[in-house]
Structure formats: structure tokens, C-alpha cells
Amino acid sequence: MTALCPGSFDPITLGHLDVIRRAHDIFGDVIVAVGRNSTKLNLFSLDERVALAGEAVADLPGVRVMPLDGLLARFALDHGARVLIKGLRFASEFDYELQMAHINRAVTGIETVFLPASAEFGALSSTMLREVASLGGDVSGFVTPAVGHAIQAKLAERASA
Ligand code: PNS
Fold this sequence. Notes:
single chain, alpha/beta, 5-stranded parallel β-sheet, 5 strands, binds 4'-phosphopantetheine
């Protein structure tokens, strides 16, 4: 069965990779769908986020990365995924995600499976990671080495612009 892990992945973190690997263990075939979240200020462009995620999952043969276009639930079905995977870190995320799960099933019939974030990643978010990195903090413990280098390069590029 194909499952789809959606997110903005700006950038992909070890927390995302933990959920993707566990989804891969359960479902075998996984699409990582990289979308735009209009409520967030991006650090990386969509193309950059897709490339970084693709590099991070390169060791997982059943995992593909695609840019997300249009309605998530329709995109998933169009690409053969009947299940959406959402990682949950804390209880306050549940209300919003439950609402999304209901609406996605109502409009297309697609199911949502929630995976609890592993304890070590329970407080990790790309939003906080971007904030810490932009203020000079070390985020290398939360991302792959390639993503860590990409963050440093992006911040240096912005500083010199
Ligand atoms: O990591 P994020 O920022 O929570 O990811 C959000 C994303 C990109 C998955 C979300 O904005 C999305 O699904 N966009 C596609 C449009 C859509 O279907 N929206 C309504 C239901 S989620």
C-alpha cells in the first residue's frame, strides 16, 4: 500500500525522517509530498526543499519525494496513495490534525494515520530550527549533515545579499 507524508519540509529534519522511515516500515511505498504553507515564511524554495528531502531519503528505496500541487487529498489519490501519514508531537496538534483528517476523508474518502513522534524528536520543528539557525545557534543535531550545510550556505547567502 502507498502512503503519503505531506509537509512543507523547510527543511526536512531528523524528526521528519523518523516518521518517514516508520511509515516506510509499515506501508513499504511512501511518497513524501513537499508543499507550500502560505502561513509560513520559507527559508528554502520549493525546489530546494524537494532536493534536500530527496537526498535525505536516498537510502530508502521505497520512498519518493514529489512537489505537492493543489489539494493534498486529491494529489494523494491521483498518485495511488490511499493513506495520509501525519506525525504528532504533542496533544495541541491533535485538534487541528483531526479536523484535517475529517475534511480530507469527507472530500475524497482518504484515510489519515497518526504516528506519534519519537520521544527524542517531540520538541523539534522546522519553524524553531529556522529561528535558532538564523540567530546563530547550532542545529546540526537536528538535521542530516547535508541539510546542515545547506542551512549554513543559505544563511551566508542571505547575510551577503
Ligand atoms: O509542514 P506543514 O507546514 O504543516 O505542511 C502543510 C501542507 C503543505 C502539507 C499543507 O499546507 C497542505 O496540505 N497544503 C495543500 C493544500 C490542501 O490540501 N489544504 C487543505 C487540507 S490539509
